[in-house]
Amino acid sequence: MDEEYDVIVLGTGLKECILSGLLSVAGKKVLHMDRNKYYGGESASVILDDFYKIHGKEAPENMGRSRDWNIDLVPKFIMANGELVKLLIHTGVTRYLEFKQVDGSYVFKKGGKIHKVPSTEAEALSTSLMGLLEKRRFKNFLQFAYDYEPDKPATHKGIDPKGTMKAVYDKYGLDDNTASFTGHALALHRDDNYLTEPCLDTIKRIQLYGTSIQRYGKSPYLYPLYGLGELPQGFARLSAIYGGTYMLDKQIDEIIYEGGVAVGVKSGGEIAKCKNVIGDPSYFTDKVEKRGQVVRAIYILNHPIPNTKDSPSCQIILPQSQVGRQSDIYVCCVSHTHNVAAKSYYIATISTTVETSNPENEIKVAQDLLGPIAAGPFVTVKDLYHPVDKGLESRVFISSSYDATTHFETTCTDVVDIYERIMGEPFDFSKVQTQVETVEQ
C-alpha cells in the first residue's frame, strides 16, 4: 500500500459506498477498506441463517431455504423522484439493479385505523381520513402546494415563502389531524419543528412526494429486488470500474495524523497515505457523540399487513401526534415478490427513535397493526452517533448513524453534505435524469 490516495473510505455501509462511487466517478483515486468480510456494514442484507445467528438463535427448517431470504438490517425505501435515484442514475449503478414499486403508502390516525396517504386532488376528495369540508380545504391546499414555484409570485397565493408552515395551514383552514399527516406522511418530517420554520422546504417536500407518485403510481417508493444489500455492492462495483481499490476483511489499526490532519491509515503494519478519510462512526469513536437511540423490530409474517388491500409491500407512518409521542413510528413491509423472502412470507419492520426505558413497549401500537406473527420480533436498539465536527480541518469525514426513517431522504442528505465538504462544491442534481426502469411480477 505504498500509493497515495485522494480518499480512503472505511466501512462498506451504503453511505460509504455511495461516496466511494461518486468520488471515483469525479476522478478521485479511492481506496475502500472494511474490517468485515461482507458488503453493507450496518445496512447489509443477510440470509435467514445469518439473521437468526445475529439474534442468537437457530433458524427454523420450515421457512424455506436460507438463501431464499435477504433480510435488511436497516430497511428503507427509495423515493422515486428523490436524491438516491438521481445518484443511482448519475453513476450508472442502475445497470446492476432491478427495482420494483412499493405497493402502498399509508398513514395511521388516532383510533387505530390506517388510511392510504391522499396525494392527488381526486384522492383528497375521496379519502376517509377527514370530513367533507376538510376534504375540500385539503384539496385546495394540495393544488396550491403542487402549483407553487418560488420564482413565480403569481403561484404564491399571498403566501410568504419565508413565512411559517403553520401560517400556510391556517390560511387553508386545515385542522391539526390534516396538518399532522401532511407534515409527516407527505413531507416526511420527523417532528413538528417544521411548523415554525419557513414553509418553502415543506412545500418542496410535498412536491417531491407528488412527483414521485406520478412516476409509477401506487406509492412514491421503489425497492431493489434481492434487498438493499444490492445497493452498496452496486456502488462498489462502480468504484472499481473507475479505478477504486477494495479490501474486505482488512483490520484498521490506526488513523495517521500530522498536525491534526489525517494523512493515512495503518493496517497490519502497512500505511496507505491519503488526503481525506471517510468512514462510519464505528471507526471514529473519539470523534462522534451519541444523540439518542433507535429501536428496530423485524417480524416475519405469512400474510400481508391487514387493511393494506393485501399489498405485498407498503409503508405505514404513525405521526407522533397520533400516538402521543415526540417522534414518528415507521412500518415497512416487503415480501417474496421482491426476492427477499421464501414464497408466501413477508418481512415487516417497525422503527422509531427511543423515548423511554422500554423501547419495545413504544412500538406496540404499530405491532398491533401487523396481525398474527409467524416469527419475531427480532429487536435491536442501536445508539445514534453523529460527528462532533464537519472534518474540514482534520480531513476526516464521518457519516451519521442510520435514523429510524424507512426512506432514504435523510441518508442522501448526509451523503451529499459530505461530498460537498470534500469536493468544495455541491453535487449538481440539476443535470441528472430521474427515471429508472421498474419490473412487474
UniProtKB/TrEMBL annotation:
<comment type="similarity">
    <text>Belongs to the Rab GDI family.</text>
</comment>
<dbReference type="InterPro" id="IPR000806">
    <property type="entry name" value="RabGDI"/>
</dbReference>
<dbReference type="GO" id="GO:0005093">
    <property type="term" value="F:Rab GDP-dissociation inhibitor activity"/>
</dbReference>
<comment type="function">
    <text>Regulates the GDP/GTP exchange reaction of most RAB proteins by inhibiting the dissociation of GDP from them, and the subsequent binding of GTP.</text>
</comment>
<dbReference type="GO" id="GO:0005096">
    <property type="term" value="F:GTPase activator activity"/>
</dbReference>
<dbReference type="InterPro" id="IPR018203">
    <property type="entry name" value="GDP_dissociation_inhibitor"/>
</dbReference>
<dbReference type="GO" id="GO:0016192">
    <property type="term" value="P:vesicle-mediated transport"/>
</dbReference>
<dbReference type="InterPro" id="IPR036188">
    <property type="entry name" value="FAD/NAD-bd_sf"/>
</dbReference>
<keyword id="KW-0343">GTPase activation</keyword>
<keyword id="KW-0963">Cytoplasm</keyword>
<dbReference type="Pfam" id="PF00996">
    <property type="entry name" value="GDI"/>
</dbReference>
<protein>
    <recommendedName>
        <fullName>Rab GDP dissociation inhibitor</fullName>
    </recommendedName>
</protein>
<dbReference type="GO" id="GO:0015031">
    <property type="term" value="P:protein transport"/>
</dbReference>
<dbReference type="GO" id="GO:0007264">
    <property type="term" value="P:small GTPase-mediated signal transduction"/>
</dbReference>
<dbReference type="GO" id="GO:0005737">
    <property type="term" value="C:cytoplasm"/>
</dbReference>
